[in-house]
């Protein structure tokens, strides 16, 4: 069961403890066993959660840059891990995916409906609510429906290494889902079915910051500067020196200090873009990109989600087209000139440059982007990027 909510990074960059905001796609499954689930957090609680057989499980498969990434490995090593051909974690050449699994928390699978008399044998009165004793038109009316109990887990993976491949590799996506379910089973001793679904919700439950303990061996290493080299370098003259010249007192122009020019105006503006519907039914987004060399283009990244497009160009503002925001928030951010939401939207076909917010809202009314079938073309001669979704 898959969905793609907005991403959010943690502000806590410590080595051993991480503050993580849960985001990502969702998976649901059912329990095939019944037991009591005991908490395993750093702050122990005496409460245990009764888990009846057949209840629904929601898994928020999530991403955060502070989660340790998988080790570097060849494509063969990755494929062996995906196919479960290599299970020896003590092998230094083994490839694995670090994941943080939260405690299970209770929630409700909400919904209201009325049922026919023939369905009564399928309803658990203690869980689903109270039915009236009156029959109207051979149908029973549901008087109270608080929601069926369910259990929610969060599985958090690294943003850069894992999320990027999940978006482009369906087999790897299934591998991450199966890995999440296996880690939950290992942590809770539950036995989960592999019948999954896709509810139309952004995430299950309120997304909460979380503090976890990371093994030092998996924590990113921070290199320290060489003090001896630093001392030697401090005795040398700087490579670039400022030359101060005396201007005439009556001179009306001022000579800028230094030999380096300030960055051009183009490097401070969000790339302009426009969109249109092409013949095959796809949505085509045309982005005006700066003139770049091939070596710089290879460092750019394009992230496409069903309701979001993010273009990252080194030393240029981020282009973040987030259609999952509400209309009011889109208008408010555009009015403030935020660089995280598009402010310079360019001109779409048949629209003026003054209708930037209208263009963004019009694109939001279209269908979600086709992530699996997306095609991107960088045309260097015309300084534009065509993205067909």
Automatic annotation (TrEMBL):
GO terms for cellular component: cytoplasm; R2TP complex; ribonucleoprotein complex. Coiled coil: none annotated. Pfam families: PIH1. Residues 147-212 form the PIH1 N-terminal domain. Transmembrane segments: none annotated. It comes from the Eukaryota. GO terms for biological process: box C/D snoRNP assembly; rRNA processing. Signal peptide: none annotated. Belongs to the PIH1 family. This is PIH1 N-terminal domain-containing protein. It comes from Collybiopsis confluens.
């Amino acid at each position: 069961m898959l969905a793609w909510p907005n991403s959010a990074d943690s502000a806590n960059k410590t080595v051993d403890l991480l503050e993580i905001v849960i985001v990502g796609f969702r998976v649901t499954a059912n329990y095939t066993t019944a037991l009591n689930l005991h908490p395993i957090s750093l702050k122990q609680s005496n409460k245990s959660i009764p888990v009846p057989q057949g209840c629904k499980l929601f898994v928020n498969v999530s991403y955060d840059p502070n989660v340790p990434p998988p080790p570097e490995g060849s494509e063969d090593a990755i494929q062996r891990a995906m196919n479960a051909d290599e299970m020896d974690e003590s092998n230094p050449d083994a490839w694995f995916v670090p994941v943080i699994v939260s405690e299970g928390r209770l929630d409700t699978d909400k919904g209201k409906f009325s049922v026919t008399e023939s369905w009564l044998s399928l309803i658990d009165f203690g869980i689903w609510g109270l039915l009236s004793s009156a029959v109207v038109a051979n149908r029973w009316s549901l008087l109270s429906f608080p929601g069926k109990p369910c259990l929610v887990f969060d599985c958090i993976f690294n943003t850069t290494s894992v999320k990027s491949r999940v978006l482009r590799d369906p087999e790897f996506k299934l591998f991450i889902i199966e890995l999440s379910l296996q880690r939950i089973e290992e942590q809770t001793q539950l036995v989960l079915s592999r019948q999954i679904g896709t509810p139309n919700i952004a995430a299950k439950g309120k997304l909460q910051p979380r503090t976890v303990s990371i093994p030092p061996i998996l924590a990113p290493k921070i290199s320290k500067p060489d003090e001896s080299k630093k001392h030697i370098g401090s005795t040398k003259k700087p490579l670039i020196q400022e030359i101060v010249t005396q201007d005439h007192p009556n001179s009306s122009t001022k000579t800028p200090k230094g030999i380096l020019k300030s960055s051009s105006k183009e490097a401070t503006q969000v790339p302009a873009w426009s969109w249109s519907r092409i013949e095959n039914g796809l949505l085509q987004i045309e982005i005006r990109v700066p003139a770049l060399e091939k070596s710089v283009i290879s460092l750019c990244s394009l992230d496409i989600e069903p309701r979001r497009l993010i273009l990252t160009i080194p030393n240029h503002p981020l282009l973040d087209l987030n259609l999952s925001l509400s209309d009011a928030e889109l208008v408010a951010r555009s009015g403030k000139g935020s660089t995280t939401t598009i402010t310079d939207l360019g001109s779409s076909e048949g629209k003026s440059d003054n209708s930037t917010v209208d263009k963004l809202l019009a694109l939001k009314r279209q269908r979600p982007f086709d992530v699996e079938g997306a095609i991107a073309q960088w045309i260097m001669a015309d300084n534009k990027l065509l993205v067909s979704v």
